[in-house]
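Render this sequence as a predicted structure.
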Amino acid sequence: MKAFVFHGLGQSAWADVPDPGIVDATDAIVRVDAVTICGTDLHILKGDVRDVAPGTVLGHEAVGEVVEVGSGVGTVRPGDRVLVSCISACGRCRFCREGAYGQCRGGGGWILGHTIDGTQAEYVRVPFADLSLHPLPTAVSSQDAVLLADIYPTAYEVGVLNGRVGPGDTVAVIGAGPIGLAAIATAQLFSPGRIIAVDLAPARLEAAKVMGADTVVHASDNPEQLVADLTDGLGADAVIEAVGVPASFEMCMRMVRPGGRVANVGVHGQPATLHLEDLWSRNVTIRTGLVDTYSTPTLLRMMTAGRLPASSLVTHTFELHQMEEAYEVFSRAGHTGALKVVLRGKYHETAALSVV
């Protein structure tokens, strides 16, 4: 089969690799019908995620059809159309029993496209299939559903819930890429007073307005002062970091009010300074996290009911064999206007009903 293979810093290729097979009784083999590229994949190529070995197939988000299951799989069967979660869960370890699947110590967590071959391929082996695959209703298209593999649960759990967004809050979202936009969409579920989006790209700021941001500001236009002006000098109640660079993290620290919350979602490859000389007395809560995907069933029900915007996040579509071109477009988002790119496999449905 063909797959997108990481070969080391800045090196990758769409190439022939062996077909995956059942290794453990809890595995399933899924034919990939829709897949997307994550900002984390770009971080891997830049060397920010150092434990990804050369030769690994990248990708951790997909929708497809189950073609084979191990003897221990009971909840899905060949022919089922499923969402492949970015997080795999053994279901037995301490963290899985607490619903913290991202911290799984039983062989799961974020493993697809990280420590084992991932989803940017014609077929993928999914460990712990009973907990790591979600059957999909026909009312949700593959192009929409693939957004539930990572960006929506990540934005919701690590951004909105960790930031404890509440009614009337001023929420600042730093970074209006796919994760930031999904955070804007899901923050509205908690009736904040206002949402402010910050980014460097005018196209992404326009997208933030479409997703529900009340105010947008270019990162070079002193967003900290804007937040102060809008809050009588207090600062934002909740600040969501959705970039992953030192400057954006440090901006969050300056933007949050005393007693406020900062939720870091971005993948950081470089150290950021924590100015405790300014923060020690301000009662600020800082939360970091890897998504657990415990919210995926809830978000899937919301998408099925038309309560989550999805189609507006997908700006480019490709065929699976155009993976290298898709990476080029996604990596140059400032020039191409790319938000989410979706690649369609050979058997991608052509007439599924989109609910948004």
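Summary. The radius of gyration is 20 Å. DSSP finds 13 helices and 15 strands in the chain.
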